Amino acid sequence: MPHQEQVMVHGNLCAPGPPNNAGYNSNPVPVIIQTESRDKWSKKMDFLLSVIGFAVDLGNVWRFPYICYQNGGGAFLIPYVLMAVFGGVPLFYMELALGQFHRTGAISIWKHICPIFKGIGFAICIIALYVSFYYNTIIAWALFYFYSSFSSTLPWTSCDNAWNTENCTNYFGKDNVTWTNYSRSPAEEFYTRNVLAVHESSGLGDVGYIRWQLMLCLFLIFTIVYFSLWKGVKTSGKVVWVTATLPYVVLLILMIRGATLPGAWKGVVFYLNPKWEKLKETSVWVDAAAQIFFSLGPGFGVLLALSSYNPFNNNCYRDAIVTSLVNCLTSFVSGFVIFTVLGYMAEQRNVNVEDVARDKGPSLLFITYPEAIANMVGSTFFAVIFFVMMITLGLDSTFGGLEAIITAVMDEQTKFGTLFNVTFFINLLFLFCKGGAYVVKLLEEFGVGSPIIAIVFLEATAVSWFYGINRFSNDIKSMLGYTPGLFWKVCWVAISPAFLAVSLNKDPLTLFDYEFPDWSITVGYIIGASSFMWIPIYMVYKLVWTPGEKYAQITHRLVKAVQNSSKQICQWILT
After folding, report:
1. Which of 88, 265, 353, 363 could make an S-S bridge to 270, C-beta 3.0–4.6 Å?
2. Three-state SS for 241?
């Protein structure tokens, strides 16, 4: 993919500034010449829907409601909003501005910012690949459910199927049913024994053979993704008009239906009842930071890629505010969709809501909610639209992740194309073995969490301190006609990096009743290091192979950039 031309001197380890101010550029910013051959969005709404579709994903539906009630209900909204305002939204705005100004992907952009940090681009692409693995797996499971929903009686309604065990307990429509710690609902056994077949795998050391039913689902999903992206933003920009808007129609239908269920009010009270004492706990603030970060999604290279196809003078500031608000409001509304149903289930089981609301993650989407749907009037209809919503939410995230990889690699003028797609499909097959769910869990925990937070921390530091906050502000001024205010500068320089530092939070690694062995944790750390390691590797490569530069000179230049940044920051804070 052709590059934009930029008036810039190459060969330095950080983007150069004026001779007496290595950190900043008070002169007019370099001129970007947008080549006509680079793809552009056909309409502004194509871009907005693509960003919203990426940011609003399955995590908004299951993770936010769970984190909210676990951390104080309505009281959790206070740290959530604060973390969004001072951490999530500034980073979101930063990435949209960077991508739009430099008009390039996650790898090539570092030629213009600070070349020694180019390893961040490679690390982002690897993490985006892991995320795509995860979402394609979830979508394939949802497609299996979608196909299974076309029956007069949903297959996870009763305990009379071949995959059920003696522990299967169906309590809907029955009296005097005893629910014990060994009891399993029909929906749980359908998910674990018929869809995943994890009972036929002893764990990570014995994942078994590929489930051909899931492989066919994956092939269909992969075909949809391939043809949605094969002409870049020209095709994906049209597909998102369906995949990004349909989930909101389904959420509205499900929320109205949930509100009419008996016991729904119990779930809403449990969801929003504020527990103010929780605000004294550090873990609540850490969860708020982690939730807003993973919800908005800076650092995955997607925002850089999508905004790089914008017109140079597009108002990326307004886009950042609008899409962030839509994302946060979607998370909040999804809580009502989930907890009205959980209140209904608690009413049917004759237990407290907290006894029903223990599931989180995929279990909430594939066990708890389908179980409730199966016992509603019109269960087939609600099951079909629910899994259509899940598929479209997952597709949007997959579109974004793969677009980030494709844009980054093609901007490096590397041959890509069909070879990548075939390799991607083959690698995914490993996740559809009978023990594939354990691999998915390992990838989810170690492949994305801590590495992406560390990478975005370095990205924010490189932009604010090495490229220079004033130079970055001038870039935005050249696009929008005005300089970002003091609030944004303070957030980019200090508050947002601190926000990333407190977002690190590792939960115990568990799945169903399986205890992950010690060696699998080591493998998990290797998976995490497989992305982050490219940052120091590329730094060493750049230090060794940069012509005419010695280590002492390089160190002096980097230190000088930080010193100049600190000086300028102090000046505009004092003034």
Report:
1. 353
2. helix
Residue bearing the bigger pLDDT, 38 or 367? 367
Model pLDDT for residues 462-477, shown as the tens digit of each residue: 998 888 898 999 999 9
Residues 98, 532, 132, 47: what is their CA dihedral angle, to the nearest 10 degrees? 0
| Strand, helix or coil for residue 62 | helix
Residue from 436, 429, 449, 446 nearest 520 by CA: 446
Q: State how far the Cα of 571 lies from the Cα of 304, in Å rounded to an integer.
A: 30
Question: Tokens 């990326």 belong to which residue?
Answer: 316
Lookup: tokens for 73: 């209900």
Report, in this order, helix, strand and coil percent for the chain, each rounded to 5. 70, 0, 30
Token look-up 């097959």 returns 429
Mean pLDDT of 129-152: 88
Question: Is residue 537 within 8 Å of residue 119, measured between CB atoms?
Answer: yes
**What single-letter amino acid sits at 196?**
L
- In tens, the pLDDT along 108-130 reads 899 888 888 899 999 998 888 88
Sort strands 5-6 and 510-511 into parallel, antiparallel or unpaired.
unpaired
- What whole-number distance in Å separates Cα of residue 233 and Cα of residue 52? 15
| Cβ proximity of 228 and 240 under 8 Å | no
Q: 397: annotated binding-site residue?
A: yes
Cα–Cα separations (whole angstroms), residue 181 to 173, 175, 348? 21, 19, 17
- Is 60 a known ligand-binding residue? yes
Q: What is the mean pLDDT of residues 439-467?
A: 84
Q: Residue 508: which residues within 8 A CB-CB, separation 6 or more?
A: none
Q: Does 396 belong to an annotated binding site?
A: yes
Does 20 show up as a binding residue in the annotation?
A: no
Give all strands (DSSP E) within 165-318, no chain letters: none
| pLDDT, tens digit (0-9, with 9 covering 90-100), for 389-406 | 999 988 888 888 787 787
Residue 56 labeled ligand binder: yes
Q: Count H helices and E strands in the chain, helices first.
A: 27, 4
- Where do the H-state alpha helices sit in 350-448? 353-356, 362-363, 369-374, 379-411, 417-429, 436-446
Partnered with residue 33 across adjacent β-strands are: 5
Closest to 456 (Cα-Cα) out of 95, 10, 197: 95
Is 415 a residue whose pLDDT tops 70?
A: no
Q: Exposed/middle/buried for 545, CB within 10 Å: 0-12, 13-18, 19+?
A: exposed
Q: Smallest Cα–Cα separation from 514: which of 435, 443, 446?
A: 435
Q: Tally the C-alpha atoms within 13 A of residue 250's C-alpha that lie toward its C-beta.
A: 21
Residue 389's contacts (CB-CB under 8 Å, 6 or more residues apart) are 246, 247, 250, 251, 254
Q: What are phi and psi of 210, to 5 degrees?
A: -75, 135
Is 203 known to sit in a ligand binding site?
A: no
